[in-house]
Amino acid sequence: MSNAAAVLTRLRSASSLAVVCHDDPDPDSLASAIALESLARTCGVETVDILYGGSIVHQQNRAFVDLFDVTPRRYSDARLEANELVAFVDHSVPGEHNQVPRGTPIDIVIDHHPSERTVPSDVIDVRESYGATATILAEYFLESELELTPRIASALLFGLHRERLDFYRQPTDREYAAAAALHERTDPERLRELYGVSFLPGSVDAFGDVIHNRIRQGSCLVSCIGRLENRVALAQGADFLLNIDGVDTVLVGGVIRDEVHLSGRTTRPDLDLGESFGRLFGDRGSVGGHDDMAGGQLPLEDVAGTTDAEDVLVERLRDRVGRRFLDAVAGDAAEPDA
Where does the record locate the signal sequence feature (predicted)? Predict the structure, then answer.
């Protein structure tokens, strides 16, 4: 039995399903969630709850929810337990990047990220060789010949584009094949509107600080900023800085409330960024990721003490996080990037 057939068979056994996205869900996670919801309803599942922890603050993620009529609900144990089946999309282990208690049994897991922990699920479709979970869901539709509506095709195409193709983050042949198959089924107007959404004002300010505060060591670049409203600008800044000529690895850090948030990117084939984050910062907070993207949160007091002075805060982050990262993954002396 194929993975798609196993998932469909499991869906046909229940009348309700909770689809759990990871915390702060991105387009890959959201697209995969509504694609699985569509499959579930085709299989006769009457009730589908899409659940998430964290927040949806990135301007394109918020626009995605609006334009694709997604109705995600804040995670709670009660909402999870109210459904017969539980599915994870774009993550795999309870308690890692989600609010689900560790050890909770899961019925279906669909993901492309590697995990060092055992995945506690009846039906497991984890394809580490794939670049996006949306690609896996697209193949479910294409292999089963189930109806692929313009809404779902557009969502999946946007999800795999944002995960891999837009920034050329090690896409596989499967991403290109899925994109080609989805393209003719999409709603072009909806996609154009989604790509044209604007930045939040606070993100623009923080984004400017990310650019201004950058320092470079060889092909590695770091930027540490002070306090910001949400971590959207950190990921956006990391994506942007990776486009600088000669730069192949980026770390951006900033402070949200009582935590230091980190966002990293690399195109180096010899560097596993998730492993590097774990080795450098795993003993100080919650970090993780995979070979080309990583992120995490560190307790602010552990990293920078209790200072309220913004310039002191930035300098401590640069010394205790940024330079530690540069020394570990780069070679030459760090200097401001002109």
Answer: none
